[in-house]
Structure prediction request, 373 residues.
Amino acid sequence: MAKVKKQYLVSKPDYTLINAENPNQRKEFYKALHYIQHELQPKQLSKALVLYAKNHDDYNHALIRMLSDCWTSVGGKYAHMINNGAVLPEDVQAGLDNHMVELTARAKAVKAEKEAEKKVEEEKPTGPVLTVQDRMRMQAEELGALFDSWLDDLMAGKVKSVTKEMDPGKQMTLADFKAGQARYIRGFYEPELALIKEVIAGKDAQLVEGYNNVAKSSLLRVAKLLDSIISAADMVETVSKVQRKPRKKKAPSVEKLITNVKYCARFDELGIASVNPAGIIGASEVWVYNTKTRKLGKYIASDAAGLSIKGTTIKDFSGDSIAKNLRKPKEQLKDFMASGKVKLRKFLDDIKAVDVKMNGRLNNDVVILKIVK
Prediction:
């Protein structure tokens, strides 16, 4: 029976192009990383890391071989590039060096445990010690495997649209993700989204050539899903911060002041969530959005003491506190959330709408977007 030639989703990279002399070193690095993530199996990556350790006097390849694929496959991605002639960017190489030191320490612990088992056969193996960060990363990687399968189907054209089932926010909620896991998810997919956007822009001929067998419509769907994954991670992180218990060092008077405050914790339709209302006390500015009236408003403190709260109402704001109606809230709020202090000063001035005086009232329709101290 004739062998079926393997079809790659992306072109196999030339690893030798990843070198310090090449001005496109980082782009070539991301192209290679994308290829490895989609085409190589964990066992292949583990073997690559062992070979990398074998070629360096600083590392014990026999120790590294003792670790399971779940520990070695991440570093194996970079080791595979080096084994094939790549020179990694300095920051990536430094990260790999630190990773190898951690893996060596972990492998020594595994070896010590196995030696102890020989002496006391009835003692159950404890396995490598997992830190909180280890567990959060592993949980993120487990959910990431599902997201990767969605992305692969879109890239290969097996699925022609981002379906309702492809809901990253729902999956993170089901997995009970908190800020820590969400940060890992964002870290996984932000570089990939940046790469896909460059391919779609078509300004880099090498990148375009690398994805010439992928339809632009598929790339657009992949970009849409990646953006959805990152937005969902940002939402989880924001909500997790709000739901954290106030630190003990916070003055009890602040907790008492915000006891009866009503606000909209999150508004999924626009992908926005409230910050902690405790920050309103003493703030110089507070930005809010009314999901019912579609008005974006800014409270400005009347004096240096800052804003305060009584019941469900913001107090001590000046007459310059106004709101304006948003015609395209999704686009305008996305721009608003990305704005710094300087841009915020004139943000309302650039909106062509009638000024409305603020009344100070907070309710279940109001999202507390930003607080400026």
